[in-house]
Specification:
The complex is a heterodimer of chains A (about 450) and B (about 425). Chain A has two domains: about 20-225, Metalloenzyme, LuxS/M16 peptidase-like (Cytochrome Bc1 Complex, Chain A, domain 1); about 250-440, Metalloenzyme, LuxS/M16 peptidase-like (Cytochrome Bc1 Complex, Chain A, domain 1, 2-Layer Sandwich). Chain A contains 16 helices and eleven strands. Chain A has about 450 residues and is an alpha+beta fold. The chains are: A alpha+beta (about 450), B alpha+beta (about 425).
Chain lengths: ~450, ~425
């Protein structure tokens, strides 16, 4: 078979990450991961902190993200805004991101300017100064950000409420940007305390991808970060999700022309589920069987075929820190109700439970995974993101190399088994969005 | 020891250094036998190939059939010859290849990303050529795509950012081909027939109206062979007529759109610049200082950093085939609209009147020239630049000479170009929100 040959020949051309990636640790516990990529004289430099909204609790939701904003507001040595100005003057661009499980600060810059990034990042790891006037302005900015990202977008609001319905005790229910009420009550000391508690070399990883020599980067990192004192980092309480005892449903109304629906089943992630690794990769393959392109089942049967939805898809993330959801979501076509779209999803689930997926489908998924591993390497930033995300949740970034083999090992029987095990109606949460006028 | 001055001073020579950098693109060009212009960059770093076939077939060619370009683009992958939508998708996806297609105001394109050792490669190339040149426009697929586009069009009217953007373009380009974007209008989307689609396609998806960009793991010889194969079904046809120039309004105007929201959106601007415009570098550098450089820009510093009025605030020139817009935008909670809007205007008039400071020019030149290698650090970015250069007939040294041209701009050039091209009393201003 041509396809088999193709798979083999491609595997050999994919240089594993490990071949040119070096990991090291400073004495203060800070991790350094360097991936050499000499295609262009540039570098992506990223400092990752193991802190995000899943570490937060009621009353201070959104504090990790507000703190991220404050990290640009000056240190003992730099005035507010200087950080970005220095990077810009050096031809670089910089930004930051906060997620459920991590907060990251990154620069993209000519590779001979890496040292500047490291010196500046080392400075703000320990020396941020919290000024009340800056905090007040930044809190207002974050509230505008929330209005823009969530409050003015009915689908975003639906997702927020959906997660808060699906999770009762797990911090997965907390939105990264925080609840508006908590943001209104947030005080500067909350952010300052959060900084003291979590920003330390032993809770951080530096990821550098680009036209650099790994040993030189490690030396530079040592020069700037080694003197920083480690903290006592107490891991957050587990706060596991309580067992779901039955289906949950919510219905929202918003400024939308058409309804929208989301449904999700509780699903495990790699972290903390060593006994379920096979299940998790099988769910990953299952997601691609349903939604891995225009030839996949949802496009074929729901978008074309019965023409139930204008758009529809699935989502499953095995690399989060806490157990999550296997999601289905979509916009029903004109004249179709969200219930009918839900039914169409259930029909696809039933097929997966009753009949093994075909070899052709498995081959397609595997070919896509193999190709996408090569395509991903086109972006240094994205390569760094992948390494940093895995490391931040406590996974070994080397699973990026074994991922293709893990996916290849999944059989049709595995997919059928997990379809039966995880798509259990007692574990289901459904949220629907309706045009406002129907509320009246 | 660290201080800001040290980092700024250490780098005075950087702009010049990078201008002379050897990191340049070796672009090869030729024409296929049927007349398609080809741009190619060879790179064997990754075992992959990117293809981008662009046509002057965006929504500016819709005529009165608003949305026809978008529907044509969507239907390319819905059937060709004996291949159904599903056959097409399967042929690409089963080898891990990614087929893309989209249509903007000026450009429509079909793209392909694939491993360089994809087997059977000939079949993938042949199908790409068929999809671009020989779509069959099946009636059932037309109805399906029409339906889903009508839904997204209906939703656009409920999304504040889309309402703001659509209203802005509608008023900026009142009697011009840029008035309605690719999404079309409900009325025209309902009226478009199979015949209209075929007519549009046969007029614009032709060799003389196409540019092919190729990038990646293949030799020049192979690239020449593939270029022929990828375009072999295209008829020669005619190059599309240029899009007429847009006129600035004689008098500025403020359009208020009531919208239930806690946060109001403001967009303002006017039509200014074509691709290849003589003022491009002066306006680009000036705008970088005013609102185009993120946190360093004046707008961001004052409106976000100093006053906390908006999360996002920016300005940009979008050079297009005809004169694309200069645009400034922010979002703020309803009761701050007057303050934010007044500030936005004041900052623009001040900038036009006084121009940038020497320090600002120096800072922006360092950023722009120093960031040059980041512009072309991936195959994806390079193939997109090739497409841009080919599509808009920019000089082949567009990228390589960029830094030099930026360094040549003076404060006086910026002041002069802004005051000549950006007229505050002719601004079209759109305010969407409850404060209206």
């Amino acid at each position: 078979m041509i396809k088999k040959l193709f798979l083999l020949s491609t595997l050999f051309t994919v240089l594993p990450l490990q071949a040119n990636t070096v990991e090291s640790m400073l004495e203060n516990g800070m991790k350094i991961i360097v991936r050499e990529d000499h295609r262009a004289p540039v570098v992506a430099s990223q400092v990752w902190y193991r802190i995000g909204s899943t570490y937060e609790y009621d009353g201070i939701t959104g504090v990790s993200h507000v703190l991220e904003h404050m990290m640009f507001k000056g240190t003992k040595k730099l005035k507010p805004g200087d950080f970005s100005e220095i990077i810009a003057a050096n031809g670089g661009s910089d930004n930051a991101f906060t997620s459920h499980d991590f907060t990251g600060y990154h620069q993209r810059i000519a590779s001979d300017r890496l040292e500047i990034c490291l010196e500046l990042e080392a400075d703000r790891m320990r020396n941020v100064i919290f000024l009340q006037s800056e905090f007040n302005k930044e809190l207002a900015v974050v509230q505008e950000e929330r209005r823009w990202r969530v409050d003015n977008k009915p689908k975003s609001k639906l997702f927020e409420q959906f997660y808060a319905t699906a999770f009762l005790s797990s911090p997965r229910r907390i939105p990264v940007i925080g609840w508006m009420g908590d943001l209104e009550g947030l005080e500067m000391q909350d952010a300052a305390d959060w900084y003291q508690q979590w920003y330390a070399p032993n809770n951080a990883t530096l990821v550098v991808v680009g036209d650099v020599v790994a040993d030189e980067v490690i030396q530079l990192a040592n020069k700037y970060f080694a003197d920083l004192k480690p903290s006592d980092i107490t891991p957050p309480k587990l706060r596991p999700e309580i067992a779901q005892m039955g289906e949950r449903r919510i219905k929202l109304y918003g400024q939308t022309a058409n309804p929208y629906m989301i449904m999700g089943y509780k699903a495990p992630v790699l972290v903390g589920n060593k006994d379920k690794v096979k299940d998790i990769y099988a769910l990953d393959v299952l997601s691609a069987v349903l939604d891995g392109g225009s030839s996949a089942r949802i496009a074929k049967n729901i978008l074309r075929g019965q023409e139930i939805a204008a758009d529809a898809g699935t989502s499953f993330d095995p690399f989060d820190r806490l157990n999550g959801l296997f999601l289905f979501a979509g916009t029903p076509n004109e004249g179709v109700t969200p219930e009918q779209l839900e039914q169409a999803f259930h029909t696809e689930i039933k097929k997966l439970q009753d009949t093994p997926v075909t070899q052709k489908e498995l081959d397609r998924v595997k070919a896509q995974v193999i190709a996408s591993k090569v395509f991903e390497r086109d972006s240094m930033f994205y390569t760094g993101m992948q390494i940093g995300m895995l490391d931040s949740v406590g996974l070994d970034w080397r699973i990026l190399d074994t991922y293709v083999d893990d996916i290849r090992s999944i059989t049709a029987e595995d997919v059928q088994r997990v379809a039966r095990e995880y798509f259990d109606s007692s574990q289901l949460t459904v949220a629907t969005l309706w045009p406002e006028q129907e509320n009246k | 020891m660290m201080n800001k001055m040290k980092w700024m001073l250490a780098l005075t020579s950087c702009a010049v250094l990078l201008t002379q950098s050897a990191f340049a693109l070796d672009i090869k060009t030729w024409k296929t036998s049927n007349g398609v212009e080809v741009l190619f960059v060879e790179s064997h770093d990754l075992p992959m190939i990117d293809v981008r076939l662009a046509f002057k077939a965006g929504s500016s060619r819709d005529g009165e059939l608003y949305g026809v370009s978008r529907l044509v683009s969507a239907l390319l992958v819905e059937g060709t010859g004996d291949y159904s939508s599903e056959d097409i998708a399967e042929n690409f996806e089963s080898v891990g290849a990614e087929l893309g297609h989209d249509s903007l105001r000026d450009m429509a394109f079909v793209s392909l990303r694939s491993l360089s050792d994809t087997q059977p490669w000939e079949k993938v190339i042949d199908l790409f050529a068929r999809v671009s040149a020989l779509p069959s426009f099946p009636q059932d697929a037309i109805e399906r795509d029409r339906k889903s586009m009508l839904i997204s069009l209906a939703n656009r009217k409920k999304e504040i950012s889309s309402v703001a953007e659509d209203t802005f373009y509608k008023n900026l380009y009142k009697n011009h081909a840029y008035k309605i974007g690719r999404a079309g209008t409900t009325k025209t989307m309902q009226a478009i027939t199979q015949k209209d689609l075929k007519q549009f396609h046969s007029q614009y998806y032709v060799a003389n109206n196409a540019t092919l960009s190729l990038m990646g793991d293949l030799t020049l010889e192979k690239a020449k062979f593939y270029a022929e194969q990828l375009t072999k079904y295209l008829k020669a046809g005619q190059k599309a007529k240029p899009v007429a120039a847009a006129k600035m309004a004689d008098q500025g105007e403020t359009i208020k759109v009531p919208f239930k929201t806690s946060q109001t959106h403001i967009i303002q601007g006017l039509p200014v610049m074509r691709r290849g415009d003589a003022d491009y570098y002066a306006l680009y550098l000036g705008n970088h200082i005013l609102g185009g450089s993120g946190f360093s820009s004046r707008l961001m510093q004052e409106i976000r950093e100093n006053r906390g009025l908006s999360y996002s605030v920016y300005s940009y020139f979008l050079p297009m085939e005809s004169n694309g817009p200069f645009q400034m935008a922010l979002q703020t909670k309803n009761h701050q609209v007057a303050e934010a809007s007044q500030l936005l205007n004041q900052m623009l008039t001040d900038f036009i009147k006084e121009g940038p400071t020497a320090a600002e020019i120096d800072h922006s030149k360092k950023n722009i020239t120093g960031s040059f290698p980041l512009k072309i650090d991936s195959n994806k970015k390079i193939v997109e630049y090739l497409s841009l250069i080919g599509f808009y007939d920019l000089p082949l040294d567009y990228l390589d000479s960029f830094n030099e041209k930026i360094l040549a701009v003076t404060a006086e050039d910026i002041k002069e170009a802004f005051s000549r091209r950006v007229k505050p009393d002719q601004l079209i201003r759109v305010i969407v929100g409850e404060a209206s």
